[in-house]
Structures are given as structure tokens and as C-alpha cells.
Amino acid sequence: MILKRIESEGLAHNSYFLSDGSEAIVVDPRRDCLLYAKLAEQECVKIKYILETHRNEDYVIGSIELQNMTDADIVHSKELPFKYGEHRIGDGDTFIVGDLKIEALWTPGHTDDSICYVVRNPNESSEPMIVFTGDTLFAGDVGRTDLYGLDAHQGQAEKLYQSLHEKILPLGDHLQIYPAHGSGSVCGHDISDREFSTIGYERKANPMLKLDKEAFVKRSVAQRMLVPPYFRMMEDYNLNGAPLLCEIPVPKPLDVFEFEKEMKSPDTVVIDAREPGAFAGSFIPYSLNIWLEGLSIFPGWVLNSGQQILFVTERKEDMRMVKAYLWRIGYNNIHGYLCSGIQGWRNAGKPIEHLDTLSADMLKRKLDGGRMILLDVRQPSEWEEGYIAGAEKVYVGHLPAKMEALPRDRPIASICSVGNRGSLGASILRKSGFKEVYNVLGGMESWKSLGYPIEK
Amino acid sequence: MILKRIESEGLAHNSYFLSDGSEAIVVDPRRDCLLYAKLAEQECVKIKYILETHRNEDYVIGSIELQNMTDADIVHSKELPFKYGEHRIGDGDTFIVGDLKIEALWTPGHTDDSICYVVRNPNESSEPMIVFTGDTLFAGDVGRTDLYGLDAHQGQAEKLYQSLHEKILPLGDHLQIYPAHGSGSVCGHDISDREFSTIGYERKANPMLKLDKEAFVKRSVAQRMLVPPYFRMMEDYNLNGAPLLCEIPVPKPLDVFEFEKEMKSPDTVVIDAREPGAFAGSFIPYSLNIWLEGLSIFPGWVLNSGQQILFVTERKEDMRMVKAYLWRIGYNNIHGYLCSGIQGWRNAGKPIEHLDTLSADMLKRKLDGGRMILLDVRQPSEWEEGYIAGAEKVYVGHLPAKMEALPRDRPIASICSVGNRGSLGASILRKSGFKEVYNVLGGMESWKSLGYPIEK
Amino acid sequence: MILKRIESEGLAHNSYFLSDGSEAIVVDPRRDCLLYAKLAEQECVKIKYILETHRNEDYVIGSIELQNMTDADIVHSKELPFKYGEHRIGDGDTFIVGDLKIEALWTPGHTDDSICYVVRNPNESSEPMIVFTGDTLFAGDVGRTDLYGLDAHQGQAEKLYQSLHEKILPLGDHLQIYPAHGSGSVCGHDISDREFSTIGYERKANPMLKLDKEAFVKRSVAQRMLVPPYFRMMEDYNLNGAPLLCEIPVPKPLDVFEFEKEMKSPDTVVIDAREPGAFAGSFIPYSLNIWLEGLSIFPGWVLNSGQQILFVTERKEDMRMVKAYLWRIGYNNIHGYLCSGIQGWRNAGKPIEHLDTLSADMLKRKLDGGRMILLDVRQPSEWEEGYIAGAEKVYVGHLPAKMEALPRDRPIASICSVGNRGSLGASILRKSGFKEVYNVLGGMESWKSLGYPIEK
Amino acid sequence: MILKRIESEGLAHNSYFLSDGSEAIVVDPRRDCLLYAKLAEQECVKIKYILETHRNEDYVIGSIELQNMTDADIVHSKELPFKYGEHRIGDGDTFIVGDLKIEALWTPGHTDDSICYVVRNPNESSEPMIVFTGDTLFAGDVGRTDLYGLDAHQGQAEKLYQSLHEKILPLGDHLQIYPAHGSGSVCGHDISDREFSTIGYERKANPMLKLDKEAFVKRSVAQRMLVPPYFRMMEDYNLNGAPLLCEIPVPKPLDVFEFEKEMKSPDTVVIDAREPGAFAGSFIPYSLNIWLEGLSIFPGWVLNSGQQILFVTERKEDMRMVKAYLWRIGYNNIHGYLCSGIQGWRNAGKPIEHLDTLSADMLKRKLDGGRMILLDVRQPSEWEEGYIAGAEKVYVGHLPAKMEALPRDRPIASICSVGNRGSLGASILRKSGFKEVYNVLGGMESWKSLGYPIEK
């Protein structure tokens, strides 16, 4: 029996391939899904079912894409009017995969259509072996319950408590859990970076499972999490189906002159995917800086789904990752990239700018000077763990909407944890015409390393 | 936190790389161990300790090799006078790896120096998280207890029972277990092909854990397992240290004429690593047929450690696997391989032979004819699950010693499960001058598929 | 300036990528042509033109496929009514690619639409630098002139002589030539295995260029070359356009039962792509044996374009080569392959057969016995260099048509150069019900290595 | 027959592998030479000879390294007292490689021990086929003749003229030439970027071959080429033998704290191998910036052979290229690299600096301001093709020696062709305490693209 976890890096999304040697299932496939078909081929097994734990909101699910390659049946909850898929299931429904028996548990809370899948091998034991917990239970955390809006938050939290305590925990301490997300996902508040766990270990170590119902709901409702605008698009795709990848245009290598021409097309945005230090050194005016790993989520904050996207990358081969990341979150419109890189642009005498940067000690001296505005562009949850006195709290994803209020005649520094989101923030400000903008390289991490004071 | 299982295919040996993000350990590394150093480099962590669960008998442990690359400390039991290593430990000893606390449990039984390693993350919980169970507990089975000889068998089985019930099971149902072997290993009797488990699931599903002490010991002692001759060499290597791989000569590509010349060197053996059907089609006289995956164990039955080894492979690139497999079990003396393959040999007009093969239905007709001797070269445990009436039970590894007794004037067919070991058996017979020798392609599996009768 | 030769192995077809650093051309692309687009991307240049030297008859040209990826213009002769392409050109037409100037020379002979492309760099010299010679001039040989039928043969040979002596040789000794085929191609009679040459070296070393017109024509007309049936299909594809590869179904991994079911579909053929020794050891009844490299040409002799094709391969990864080879010669209908290989088939107890093989010395003894028929399935040109006394000359591609005449009550051995085509021949006979069929492993090469007599 | 050109990128050095199908030669192997052995293995041929065209001065020759893998004989000129090698040869000496006959031509000029190797295939023609021209004749240029000092320059140029006109050109227009260097090499003045040529084409297009003796010598002597200090070390290695690569320590991944500690070791230098824009954005104080490709030559200007070297790279995998490049030019002492990259350094709060950069238009405005000093750090030959009015000519390799004369109280900008060497120059100045230092990103190329005035 083989169980492979396939991580979509950046998204911190986990999908799974489980085979008993004769048949296989895939749980929550990602959109670029050739690798599941390859696994099945390698093991000489048929993928019989594609199981969805719920209508995902943070990425385009690859069920249709994978079905197109393998003829597997798609299984999901009967709670939603999906426009695709062969099996709508409910609590207690079972199906057979080789020697394995798989049972659906209806576990509403994160969403109303959430399903966990329990796996048994009756040849070995009538006891369950493992459970795919979707966004219901993570290592060290539980699913967020705010996606139906703040009015429904309390009700969803109560449902989740019930699902956890009446459906999942009673399965027994000995089950390994395979959740849909790992550390860093936007679908949980504080998921552990442990890549493995059991129900028993979670019962002992997961802070959310130690709370009684009242405390659980209170704490859930108190969490202020972010909802990136692209979630709407995902919900639509994952209910009605997204286009197949082979129908999406392949990004083109563009030379300096083609790139310059395309930049001027209406509704076009240039994303510079280099690391913030390199971006700071020289960049194309009006480009936004999103470092490579950040492409798994931040386009969802700053790009409209219809925009034509152009890329500047450190290396040509980075486009592989660029494509995977953007396609996974539904941005199908990458027109091309600057084939010669920023060097070719510079050598052609095209306009470049540079971004001022600060190290933590330089920041300290500037702040002591008094005139500088410091924007802390981290998430609220990070802010709560400590910030620099005098900083303003503006999450980077909210910056476009909140820029109006910022003065244009004073220096502004953008700070995050290490300097990546800070650079995105700074590039947003520069694009909007702010002149004296700084990014703090090393961010709060270097500030703390140097022992400078933080407030809470 | 990252935990990677690295399997040595064929051997069904598991080693592990565990990192908390700042420091790492490797448990029971294999001999070709660059990949652990690469993992550490990729994660930017230092390998602090190399942990050995016991003096392994079925492969050359890579501790010294890995230490040579990384400066990590080697940890093993104080029960044996190891000639290398920095830390001799005993029951209850602990050490710190980043945020993790690792505790040694002394679990004699499989060997007297067996150690299991329990991992805790005190930041999360005082409860243990996982346990590396070495050859003490597997998925679906427990370690063999016969390695100290039949006289000591009962005593070792009693110790193992105690280790399991007093040390391992009390850790709690919720621990994931990470054993040193998977399905197919010679270190267990009937290890499950599940690649994951927990103490709780084993308690429910592992047949050996359902027995009381008396039954456990009785069943252990009743198991007749095989001890390949090369185990002695491994025990020596793993107590005193094996040569570094960089000190071992690299196998050379040889043309037909060089190969022919080397074949005639004293104490030289030719191994043909093609699949048995291809071997049957045409082979070099006096060569032994061990299919690629079989190289992980069968050289240990039929080669002396001092012999010069020559290889015929299906493809040049197969030599990568050949080298890894032989080096892992301590055969350092691969002189070279036939670069042009068997085709070049044939085209040069060099002598070839072919081996007669039988499908299951042809075998049936031949047996009905009456003159043919059928050797069942499988393990005793496989034999017990059913054999063909009239077959003689001779394990392939014991064949060289038992050939004397076989008549040379009657046709002999060699059968195993699917035809691989059968071909090795047939090639041993041919090498020894038997004339009319058959291998049954498809073996007992095809016999059963056709619904032919078996006895028990 | 970069010039890359891309060889289609097996076909011995050469295509070329030439870039001056700003723009590029591709000459005679093959059908699986992503690699040209990758080269352009790597060099950051645009492919401006795709040049065809003539309507090829031995493979599907990739012009449309590549245009679909790159927007390059397609250039070919105005002598044929191509259904695709942007530029129909004639003698002396020129075009500019970056700093390079390319001139078309009309060189009829091999076909009436044959074009050679001369490249100059006016910045360096007004003298030509290199010439792409298509099927007009090869290293050590010239293009075949029999493709318009035997009636036209002499006329075409005269045209070719003229093209060579009035168009190509006058360009000067110093030009490097880049022909469309290398050693082993069916488009030449005896192409050298030199992968490079110049006009001057050919003038000195190419036997065809040393002849005067009369001798040249006489020798050309005397050559009896083979015309595989699939050439017709290629001519149609290369005049009217072939389907894009993305429109062709991807071969599926099939398990034993699916494979067995598909085998029984009407108009289905099973190709076993293992080497002849392995095929001989065990094969599925009624399958044809074409070794991997042979798939570049022999399907064109034995498969109809409409047949559903199933494959047995040594390894799963061989399907990459299988697909490339069959698609290059226009067989788009590969339904699937036996995922578990022949081993899985055997283990399931499905019927297998084996093929008798002979080494050269065994053949000799058999022939001395008198009853055996020996079919020499090599090309006529190989036969003329020497054969075994008493052999019958039947080219393997003609065997299906000539089987009628063979006696079914005598043993038949099939021999070629080394045993590959011999095995195809033997499998054709077995498929047609011949019972006692042998393949000679090592073929004529081993016969000669052993010093046995040959006749001429 | 196979001929592969293996380029050592950066060095623009060509080595060659030539096989006739049974035996092979390698001409001028590079130091990291496993790939030649792999080629031989792939073709199943023996490398019989390793041919050196002369004692190279710009890289460590891999002859001994390759001999160690393959047992091939080493061949070089009898004019020098080599401490290794089996064959010392002179003009007209021949040797046999399979079907090929190879003749040595003594062609002094570049060095006194220069040999060209002419290849014939007597089976095809008595005429020569190709010639390996070493540093005697390049595409578009000839070898430099200044290496024995300015006093000997005229004499060497005369010898070279004679070698070219009496030995090489008479071989015939039809020979393809395979020189030891391509465009960008320091061993020629203006080598073409054509990767192929013939004697005939060179006779027509090579400006040096159109000159009579007097003009040839005059022009040769007038060329002012650079002699990097590391040439001395190469000459020693290539006469007496360099250490084997397996004897050289492997660079270690270092964390921030280890790296910081090692930086402080005596005689240690930090090389930052990122592109100049990224370096400018943030760098470790006192590090030198040599972009990746520049590592093939610039360490030879700025590093002493005994120094301990530490690296900062953009990505971990860049260390592969770093090692190859430095080892090829004899720097064996790479201690380690910053595993977490500059990001880890920044996040740890360690000191960083940034370098001011200018685009061409910013430079123009600054120059108009009047106070700025502009250092043109390009080679003299580039300077002669045009420079910015007022610039000072100081080659980057000579900057350390000429820094004394520069004022420390004025802003200094460093400019090269595109900004790479400019950044090295700027980093040298910063390391030496200059405060206001700028690098011009885009360099002269962007200056010219913008149409700004240049002088000659």
C-alpha cells in the first residue's frame, strides 16, 4: 500500500495518492496534475476515484483535469450543486478501492459540504486506519470558520466543534490524519509545520482540541483572518469547473521591444518575480514585485482575473514555477516574459528605477530621525505578536485600498517579516506615484535579531 | 518539521531523515548516502546525529560514509564494542536536536543491542510524537529473533515480547511508528506492505501483538527463516566499519574481447542481470541469472566476498542500480560489465546458450508425463502456503549445497513465485553441468491463475 | 552564431537550428519539435523561418507543428501545390535572417521540388559559408532518384547530376555541407557515418562525385532500393499537412485484462518492442517483434495506417521512444501498452510462446543437416555483399506478400545482419501459422566472425 | 564517426571527442572531465589518446585527470619538458586511432610547442579531412603571440605567419577546422562567434589571413592584450601536473554564523556571484562581486592562489558552476558558501551594504554635473572602439594596482560594457574604503542604445 503526499508549495496545500496495489484514489488533486497519472502508471494501478473534501476556495481543484487524463470518477458532497462529477455523497456512504473500504464522514464547519474520508482495510482489521481530514482538522490547528461571513461565523464554529468531537475524535487515537493543508496555508490560523500527525497526538497537542465548546467557538470567532479577493473566482471554478490547462495560452518569451510594446497594452500588469534585493537594485518602472514563492498567493490580492500579465524573472527556468503557481490559483492569462531578463532591458537603455532599502539598523536611525512613516504590512496575527512602536498596521493586500490616506510628502518604509511582502508593498506605492519609499530588507526578523524593542 | 523515509529498494530497508528546521538526524543510513547530505543542504540544516537502531546484519550501514561527508556524530548502543562512533548509549539516554528531544529505549530481542528512538517536541506536548522502531516493530509484524542461533531463539523471543509490551506499546496508541524495514525484507517474517502505521493500529491489526507471551514465543520459535551467508560479513562491517565507497574501484565498461579475457581470470563469476525471459533467450555459458531487483539480496547467497564479479545487463544505465545494490550488501569487487550488451557478444560470434522455459500449462503437461523433477526453490514460508504435488523443496540459496543429490539424467524444472528465483536456480544447475533444465516463467502465480491444484 | 544538428535517431534524419544571435531558422524540423522552440527560448531568439528542403517521403515534417508554437513562416518550393506554408520559392530567391543572407538553389533530382539553402554572412565575406543540402548531397553519397518510379529513374538521375555539378560543387570546396540524412537512412544508398563534411572533401572522397555523367546515371539507375508502403502516407501528410500531436490520443497503460480485451478488437496488432533475445524467451501469441530502434522504420512496412496498435515493451519508459518513433512516421493510433510488461502477463497465466533461436554455429550444423530453409531477410544491397550458400533472398518488408510460396512442413530460419530484422521475420511467420521457425541471433555478423563461408 | 565539441563556457575553450566507432581521442580536455569518459562509455569505445595542442596558459588541462579514469595515453610536444605524459611528438609524427590516421604538424607561433593535429581516413581518401588547430587558427582570428613577452613578440608573430601559411593553409580549402577557442577567449584578439569553419572560408573571411607577412606581424605586434596573473600558475600546472579533483576539498554549506566566523579567518575573501543588480541591492561588506559567468576568468585577476574563498550565490545550485569555473582555472581552495543566501544573512540582522547604481541617463546627468570621476574598466581593445568623453581608462584587472592614484573625496562611477565588470570594479573600490562609488547598470551598451556621444 502506497500513500504519497503531494504538496503544492507556497499554497501549503496537500493532495494525496493512495494505492492498495490494484486501484488508487487521489484526494483533492491540484490543477497541474500530470504527476498523479504518472504515479498510477508507475505503480500500474488505475485511479478509480478522485475525492474532493469540499469545494476549495484557495486553489483551482484539478479533478476535471485529472479525469480528462484517467477516466476516474469524481466524488464530492451532495450539499452543493456541482456542475461536474459522478458521485454526490453524504454521511456514511462507502466505496471500495481494491482491498480498501472508504467511508465518507460529513463534517460541516469549515464549509457546509466538508467531507472527511476514513480508510479501512477489512483484511487487516475492522478498525479504521487513516483519515483524510480536508480543512476540518490540521496538525496543530482546525479549519477556519469565517468563510460564510461574520454573521455566520459563530454558527460555523459550532458545527466544526461538533464535527471534530462527534465525528473525528471518536475514530480513535491511533488514526493517522492527512489534512489538506500544512503550515503557511491561509485556510488555517496557525497550522503546525509538522508534516504528519495522528488523532491521538492532536488530542494532546492541538490547542484547539483542548478547549470546551464555548471556548472553542469564542476563540474561533475572535480570530481575524484574511479573505483574498480571488477566493470568489475559486469558488466559481470549483463549483462549475475551470478550463483545461491545454486550453490556456502558453506564456511567450519576449524580447525587450516586444515586452515594451506589450507593457503598453490596456489592462496589463508587469510582475517582477525576483527576490526583493535584486528588485531593489533595478526594476522596470510600474512593475510589482512578488517573489517566486509569493506567487502562490499574492496575485490573488493584487491582480484582477482579466488582466494581461507580463513577467520579469531572475532566470528563464523560473517560468515553470510562475506558471504552476498562477495557474493553480486561476490566473490563466500570463502573456509572456522578458526573455533576456532585466539585464537585456538595462543594456537596451530602457528606463530602470531602483528602490531604496533599509537594514534594520538603518531603519532604527531613520525612525529616530522622526519624519519617516513605517507601514507594517504583515497579517494582523503577526502584528499581534509584536510590532515597532509608531508603526501603522496595513496588510499588504489591503494597501491599494488604503493608500489614499497616506501622505505623499514624507518618506515611507514598508516592513514585513523578512522583506518580501515589504517589497510588494513598496512596489505598490511606487507604482502609485509615491516618491520616497523604502523596503526593510530582513524585516522584523532582523530587527529582533538585533535586539531592538518591540511592542505588543 | 520534515521527516523523509528513504527506502533502499530490494532490501526493503528504511532509513529516515528528520529535521526540525535547524538541526537534523539520520536514522540507519544506507551506504550510498549522498542523498542525506543533499537533503540537509537543501534544508540548510546540519545533521547533528546519525542514529543506529542496532548492528544491522542485512546491509552495510552508511554511518561512517555519511560522517565523512558531514561531521555528524554517530550514536549506537553501549551493548556492543563498536570500533567507530562517538556515543554509546543505553536505556533512557536523551539528546537534543533543535527543538526536539530524543530518548533511547533499550529494546533487546531482535538483537541485544537494539534501540528504539522516541521523539518529543516539548514545545507542543510532553507526550511522545513518533518512534523509530528499528527491527523491533514493523507494520504487521515484529523483528525476527533467531539470529543468535536456535538455542538462543526462545530467550530472544521472550526479550522481544517484553520490549514490545513494556517499552513500546505503553508509549500510547497515538504514536506513528517508523520501522527499519518494509514488506519483502528478510528481517521480518510477514511484514505488511503498508508504508505507515501507529502503535494503536498495530495493537489492533498486528497478529503478533494479539498474542500472549507464551503464544508469541511459540510462534516466533516456530518460524523457520533463512540466514544468508553474507550476514556474517555485514556483522563484521557494521561492528568494525566498512571501506569508504571512494576507495572502491569503479566498474569498467568492457568490450567483448576484454570481457571474454576477464571471464577466464581465476575466481571470477559472471552475473547476468536481465529478466529471466531475456536470459532464457540467450546467455553467456556459465553465467548466473539474478534479475535487477534480486541483486539486493541474492548475491549474498551465491557469491563469495572475494570473487571478481562481471556483469551483463540489459542496458548500460542498469549499472547504476547494480553498483548500489551490490555495494549496499558489501560486495565491493565489481570489475566491469559487457558494454555492448549480449547483442555485441552474439554479433561477435561468441558462444551463447539458451535456457528452456515452461509456462504453467506446459509444466502441467510435462509433469503429467512423469519423468520431470520439479524443484520448488521458494522459501519455506512460501512453500507452506501451497505447492505442486510431487515438487521437491530446495530453497534457491541452498541449491549449490544440495545439487549433489539430484539426478543428472532427468529433466529438471525450477519454479518459484513468478520466475526470477527459478531462473537463478536453473542457471546454477546449468553452470554445474546439468543439461536438461527448465525455468517456469510466471511460476506459482501463473499456476494458481490457471486454477491448477496445489497442496498444503 | 550557433548551428545545432538535431538527429531523429533511427530515421537517421537531420534537422538544423541556425541562429545568428538575433533570429533563427529551422531546416526540416521533425514532428516532435518542442526542442526547437526550447533552443530558441534558450538563446532568446525568434525563429523567423522554417525551411523545407523538399516534400519529405520518409517522415512527417514538423513545420506546421512548430509554426503552431512559434509563429514562424514556412518556406518551401513553388514546384508543388502545398496546402500550407507562407512562402513558395524558386531558384535564387533570398531572405534575410539577422545578419545572415540565405539563398535558395533549386536542385531537382531526388525530387522535383528539392531546394538547397546557401548561407552567407555579408559582414564577413561575400563568399558562401555553409549549405543545407537536403537529400541532394550526403556525406559519401547522393540522394536516391527512383522515387518517381523506374520509368522516370534515368531522368531524375540526370537532373541530380546536373544539380550537383552545376549548382552545388561550384559553390566552392570550403563550404560545410549539412545534409538531411546520415548513415542508415533509406533516402541514400550508402551514406557515410561521418557526421560532418565539406564540398571539397566530398569532391575528393564521395564515390558518386567522381563519376562522369554517364557513369553517374548508370550507377544510380542500377541501384535497387526499397520503397516502404508508408511513403505514400508521408507524401500526403507533407503536401497537405498532418494532424497536430495534441490532437492525437495518448497511449494508455493497460493492465493484463484490459490488454487482453483490446487485443481482440478488430484490426488490432500487438507490437513487441523488446530485443529479439527477450522476445524469443517469451512472447504473446500473434505479436510482431520490432526492436526499439527498428520502430523508426519497420512499422512502415508491416502496419496499415488505420490499425489500432498495442505495445509490449521492456520498460515503461520505453513508451517515450515508441511514441516519438511512430508519430514521426505518421502512425497516430497507438492505443496503449501492457503496463506490467510481459512479466505481468506471464504471472497471470496468460498464454505465452517462445521462439527458437540459433547461434551461427548452431545454424551451420542445422544447414548441414539439409532440411532447413534459410530466409535472408536483409536488403538486396546487403545480400550483394555476401550471403550463405543456399539462402533465399526475401526482404523482411516483402515477407508478408511472399509467404504463400514457402513450405509449411519444413523448418525455416530467418537471418539478417545481427538478429533484429530476423526476429521480425520470424514473428511474421509465426503469426501466419508457421510452426517451426528460428531466428539467428547474431545474424550474418556472427556468421562472419566465426569465419564461415559466404558467397557473392 | 562522431565528433563532439565540448565547450567550457566562460573560458570559451573547446575540447573535442572524436571516435571512429572503435577507438577515440580527446583533444585538450578540460579539468572536470567525467563527460569524456561518459561519451566513450555511451559509444562503447576506448579513449586511446589524449592529445594536447600545447601547454595551455588559460586553464588547467584535464589530461591527467582523464587518464586517471581511462588509462588513455597522453600526447604532447617534445619541445617542452613535461613531467607527465607518454608520447612526446614532433612534426610529421603519426598515430592510428581505429580507421583514422592522425598526423602532428608542428606550428610554433602562439607558443613554441604548438601542435596541430590533421585527421585522415585512408579508407575514404588520402586527403586530410579535418584539423584540430589549437591556438594557431581560430574562426576569424589567429592565436596571440605576446605570451613570451614584448621582446619576443615580433619573432613569435613571424613564426605564426609561417606556421599558418606553410603548414595549415596548404592542407586545402576543404578541411574543417576545430580550434581550441571560440568568441570571448583571452587567447585571441577578436575571435568570431561562428562555431564552425573551414580552411577555405578562413582564407576568404579571416582578416589576419588576408595580410602579407609584414602587415601580419605589424598588426600582431600592435595588439595590446592582457595577461592575467593566474597564467603563471596554469603554466606550472600544465607542465608539471595539477592535483586530482578528488584530492580537493568539497565546498561546505555554511550557516550565517559559520560563514561570519570563516570570513574573519586570515587571508579569506568573500566572492558574491550574484548579478550586479542583486549585488547592488544588498551585499556583505568587503565582498567582491563577480557574476557567475565571470568566474571563468576574473578570479584569475583578483585572487591569490593561496586565499581561502567563501561564496555568496543567488541559489544553492549555482555552486556547481562556481566549482567548475574556479577549478578549471586552478583555484582549489573554495571553503564554503552561505547556504541560506543573502536573505538568511539579512534576516539574522547581519550588516549589509548597498551599492549605488546608475542607468546611462542618470550617468549622463551626473557627468554633466562635473564632479564625478568615470572609470572605464573595459579592455583596451574595447576602449578603442569608443568611450565616453572624460572617462579614465583603467582595466578592472589592473584596478587594485592603480587605486592609489584615485581621489577618495569625489564620487567615482565604474563602467564596462553592460555592468558586470563595472560591478566588480565598484566592489574593489568599496572594499578598499572608497565611499561614494557607483556602478553603471547597462554600461556602454545602454549608453549607446540611448544615442549618447562617444569618442574614439
Tally of separate helices of chain A: 16
Oligomer: homotetramer
CATH architecture of the largest domain in chain A: 4-Layer Sandwich
The total number of structural domains of chain A is 3
CATH class of the largest domain in chain A, anyone?
A: Alpha Beta
What fraction, in percent, of the residue positions of chain A are helical? 25-40%
Mean pLDDT of chain A: 95
Which structural class best describes the helix and strand composition of chain A?
alpha/beta
Largest interface: A-D, 35 and 35 residues
- CATH topology name of the largest domain in chain A: Metallo-beta-lactamase, Chain A
What Rg of chain A, in angstroms, do the CA atoms define? Answer: 24 Å
**Order of strands across the widest beta sheet of chain A?**
1-2-3-4-5-6
How would you describe this structure to a colleague?
- Four copies of one chain form a homotetramer.
- With 456 residues, chain A is of the alpha/beta class.
- Chain A has three domains: 2-235, Metallo-beta-lactamase, Chain A (4-Layer Sandwich), CATH 3.60.15.10; 248-347, 3-Layer(aba) Sandwich (Oxidized Rhodanese, domain 1), CATH 3.40.250; 356-449, Oxidized Rhodanese, domain 1.
- The longest helix of chain A has 19 residues, at 150-168.
- The first copy, chain A, has 16 helices and 23 strands.
- The model of chain A has no long low-confidence stretch (mean pLDDT 95).
- Chain A has helices at 34-43, 63-70, 150-168, 199-205, 213-222, 231-240, 256-263, 276-281, 299-302, 318-328, 341-347, 360-369, 380-384, 399-402, 420-431, 443-449, and strands spanning 2-8, 13-19, 23-27, 46-51, 73-77, 87-89, 94-97, 100-106, 115-120, 128-134, 137-138, 141-142, 176-179, 252-254, 268-272, 288-289, 308-312, 334-338, 356-358, 373-376, 392-393, 412-415, 437-440.
- In chain A, the strands form five sheets. A six-stranded mixed sheet of chain A has the order 1-2-3-4-5-6, with helices on one face. A five-stranded mixed sheet of chain A has the order 7-8-9-10-13. Chain A has a five-stranded parallel sheet with strand order 14-18-17-15-16.
- Chains in contact: A-B, A-C, A-D, B-C, B-D, C-D.
- The interface between A and D is medium-sized, with 35 and 35 residues.
